[in-house]
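hey m, so remember when u said the tokens were messed up on ur end? i reran from scratch. heres the input so u can diff it against urs
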Amino acid sequence: RFHSALDYCPELLVNHGFLTRRKPSTAQWRDIKFGWDIAKDIGRLDIGQTVVVNDTAVIAVEAIEGTDQA
């Protein structure tokens, strides 16, 4: 049986809500939603799990070789 890392280290999971003092602006929310959809797609394809977005344009994508090789 496999176990989640959170079974052993639940403190690794951040709490729900904002992690900064300032809430994202409307433009930042647009980028978050845009990037989230792309990150889910590349994760589902097992290519990577990270994207960098600015003004609804993808700036960087974690490729299949991962971040250690880039």
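this time it looks ok to me. Strands lie at 51-54, 57-61. if urs says something different then somethings off w ur setup not the seq
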